[in-house]
């Protein structure tokens, strides 16, 4: 089976490395990443102490879209803002029966892909773990979490294939609800980015968690207005998780330990974008909550304030403010 990963960043390289054990894998990405992989191969470590290495000879490494020719499945892992352009570039090379899976943040990317590939099978997916690039071609899976994909029968061969890897995919019939649940978790991304601190450190401070909880409460109200009840991805339902976030630090630490394994290296993709001067995905996270709220006439002041602060940080570049927990909470009114 030939699998092409479009967007060989942190997530794309990890899923590609896992599939290299069982399939012909092509990675399409930026020259910086592809050149490093050609020199070093791909190394993936994990919070649980495991490690995996893929020699470059076991991968097809490319920067041009023609590497997608004859793919059985395409995994799209580019940032949301690049979805249409990246998929449009590979479109001429795809077979009519190529299955396309979105492994991206946010709610809208599968529809964006369908807009470019209306005749193809497009399946939503979700990656629930955090990945940090620790060195060229070296990636660290810094939190627990799974890969989930829609249970469309046409994606079943890919799902079955992953069972022979260290990163199996879980088919879900409720991907709409799963995506909304993932969005609730991703609302922490701008907090980490604005604080310029590791995820674990931010989660250890109650005021940072209060900002996240306020965003989640706004999102849950908006989701309910749209008739969506987020899936339960951990031991607690979404509304209970929002309440636990505001508990004293000691209580939260004990409860969280049973839900999510986070090591000190974990940050967020938005933090990485700000570090490298790239546009962030804030429009797909808090921005999506603001947009959905606007459609139902529901105010989302905390999410709106975080969108504004991230936009300011994008403009400021290296001179952006590093927010303390108390200051951030006051600034957004959480």
What does this structure look like?
- It is a single chain.
- By secondary structure, this protein is α/β, with parallel strands linked by helices.
- It has two domains: 2-173, NAD(P)-binding Rossmann-like Domain (Rossmann fold); 178-332, Orthogonal Bundle (N-(1-d-carboxylethyl)-l-norvaline Dehydrogenase, domain 2).
- It has helices at residues 10-19, 31-40, 83-90, 109-116, 156-162, 175-186, 189-195, 199-203, 206-225, 238-244, 249-257, 269-275, 286-296, 301-316, 325-332; strands at 2-6, 24-28, 42-46, 51-54, 59-62, 73-76, 99-102, 121-127, 131-135, 138-141, 147-150, 169-172.
- The strands form two sheets. It has an eight-stranded mixed β-sheet with strand order 5-2-1-6-7-8-11-12, with helices on both faces. It has a four-stranded mixed β-sheet with strand order 4-3-10-9, with helices on one face.
- The longest helix has 20 residues, at 206-225.
- It comes from Luteipulveratus halotolerans.
- Residues 174-313 form the Ketopantoate reductase C-terminal domain.
- It is an enzyme of class 1 (oxidoreductase).
- This is 2-dehydropantoate 2-reductase.
- Residues 3-151 form the Ketopantoate reductase N-terminal domain.
User: What is the tally of helical segments?
Assistant: 15
> What is the fold named in CATH at topology level of the largest domain?
Rossmann fold
* E-strand count: 12
Form type: globular
Q: Roughly what percent helix?
A: 40-55%
Mean pLDDT: 94
In terms of per-residue confidence, which ranges show pLDDT below 50 for 5 or more consecutive residues? none
Domains (count): 2
Order of helices and strands: EHEHEEEEHEHEEEEHEHHHHHHHHHH
Q: Evaluate the radius of gyration.
A: 19 Å
Query: What is the CATH first-level class name of the largest domain?
Result: Alpha Beta
Structural class by secondary-structure content? alpha/beta
Widest sheet, order of strands? 5-2-1-6-7-8-11-12
Indicate the proportion of strand residues: 15-25%
Can you identify the CATH superfamily of the largest domain? Answer: NAD(P)-binding Rossmann-like Domain
Oligomer designation: single chain
The major pleated sheet works out as: 8 strands, mixed
| N-C termini distance | 49 Å
CATH architectural group of the largest domain: 3-Layer(aba) Sandwich
